[in-house]
Design a protein that fits this description.
The chain is mainly beta and 432 residues long. It is built from 8 helices and 24 strands. It has a 5-stranded mixed β-sheet with strand order 5-4-13-8-9. Strands 6, 7, 10, 11 and 12 form a 5-stranded antiparallel β-sheet that branches. This is Sulfane dehydrogenase subunit SoxC.
Length: 432
């Protein structure tokens, strides 16, 4: 079903009866009529939003250049990253969350990309920035940002998900909002040079097996990455969504490690060492390992498994209209390829429906899905389940715990449940 032009928000939408019930000819008619309220009846009182002249039509507005760098409307002031203060001891070693419930499509605006820093944001002067390659290479090299911009460029859209995304939900439903349960993810277009191209410039020695990116921030974050990945699809990126990286995202240069856990995407990258063994850095021993039920820890769990979440309705985005035509929307992604299908249930898994995927579908990128339905006004249990191009199916929490136990933090890709109450409010619950 295509949406008629005159469907509006909950303040005065077209009723589903008029839209879905109509024949093809009737649809055309519905699209040209204006309904005053969701029941579709003729308006009985004049609508002041129409009959009265508004401020904005009575005086000239701001001229060009009032805002040399544009910002959103003041009415969108609530669309912001948010943190959960009790999660971390300091804002320098902390995380905030992307407002997924306020976003459309698949691209995260730069100013809303969640931030995860271990030692605060490094404010790097690009004139003093240097990037070095050393270790098992024929020719150790140092580059400026301008040097890197003379390599052939690539533009690629990828999601970055922190391994800890949904980590607070391992033992039960905890945080009330998809921003907090799933917001350690962003999806942007990167511009940069392929890491393979730059490594080739330095010349890999025959015993080269691993690379170690290292950050120039106070945390000097470093990880071991196997050479096969470094030569596959990794990038050194200096731009996101068409402009220079934001300081929060690693300005002037960050490593892009498509489909793999966010921790490996070293920001403010100053060095890559090439070696023949992993370094067993702090971030891959004491952190970013998964404690299993038997006390053993899984290590080097790099790939992000397929996952999805319904962003609307959700606790921060309740249903504000009454029963009737309802748009359910969400996002899905997989570190192994594309999302080939998303299933949605509104009755806690009794019946599953294939969601409608809309928008571009790229490998290791976010996908947008929709399921439009006629809400009968009764409570709902909403879930979504992603299936990726390898055939992998997103598990329930119970299924995940059978394999992983209760001690994990990282790599929680389980199915999320939202309970919609009759009054439209939504809460985080667990049912399977
Ligand atoms: N790189 C450096 N140098 N320092 C850091 O603290 N945090 C890592 C990674 N790269 C980090 C880093 C973690 S854990 C994640 S999830 C991602 O960056 C977060 O990227 P973002 O801030 O762009 O969302
Ligand atoms: Co992280």
């Amino acid at each position: 079903m295509s949406k008629p032009d005159n469907i509006r928000g909950h303040s005065g939408g077209v009723s589903r009866r008029h839209v879905l019930g109509a024949s093809a000819a009737g649809m055309a008619f519905a699209a040209t009529r204006v309904y005053a309220n969701p029941a579709g009846d003729a308006p009985t009182t004049p609508d002041k939003a129409i009959t009265e002249l508004q401020d904005w039509s009575q005086a000239l507005g701001d001229g060009v250049d009032a805002k040399p760098y544009g910002v959103p409307s003041k009415y969108e002031a609530g669309v912001v990253r948010r943190n959960v203060e009790w999660l971390t001891a300091s804002p320098q070693s902390s995380v905030n969350f992307t407002p997924l419930h306020d976003l459309e499509g698949i691209i995260t605006p730069n100013g809303l990309c969640f931030e995860r820093h271990h030692g605060g944001v490094a404010e790097i002067n690009p004139a003093k920035f240097r990037f070095m390659i050393n270790g098992l290479v024929e020719k150790p090299m140092v580059f400026t940002i301008d040097d890197l911009k003379r390599f052939p460029r690539e533009n690629r859209i990828f999601f970055l998900e922190c391994a800890a995304n949904s980590g607070m939900e391992w033992r039960g439903a905890q945080l009330n909002g998809c921003q907090f349960t799933h917001g350690m993810i962003h999806n942007v277009m990167y511009t940069g040079v392929s890491l393979k191209r730059v490594l080739e410039e330095a010349g890999l020695k025959t015993n080269a097996k691993w690379v170690m990116p290292e950050g120039g921030d106070s945390a000097a974050m470093n990880r071991s990455i196997p050479l096969f990945k470094a030569l596959d699809d990794c990038m050194l990126a200096y731009a996101m969504n068409g402009e220079a990286l934001r300081p929060e995202q690693g300005y002037p240069l960050r490593l892009v490690v498509p489909g793999w856990e966010g921790n490996m995407w070293v920001k403010w990258i100053r060095r890559i060492e090439v070696g023949d063994m992993p370094w067993h850095a702090r971030e891959e021993t004491s952190k970013y390992t998964d404690l299993m039920e038997n006390g053993n820890a899984r290590r080097f769990t790099w790939e992000m498994d397929a996952k999805s979440v319904i962003t609307n309705p959700s606790p921060q985005a309740p249903i504000k209209h009454k029963k009737g035509f309802t748009v359910l929307s969400g996002v899905a992604w997989s570190g192994r390829g594309k999302v080939s299908r998303v299933d949605v249930t509104i009755d806690g898994g009794k019946n599953w429906h294939t969601a409608r995927l809309d928008g571009p579908s790229f490998d290791k990128s976010m996908h947008r899905f929709y399921y439009e339905f006629d809400w009968n006004g009764e409570p709902l249990l909403l879930q979504s389940r992603a299936i990726d191009s390898t055939g992998y199916v997103q598990p329930t929490k119970d299924e995940l715990r059978q394999v992983r136990g209760y001690n994990s933090i990282y790599h929680n890709n389980a199915i999320q449940t939202w309970h919609v109450k009759a009054n439209g409010e939504v809460e985080n619950v667990e049912i399977s």
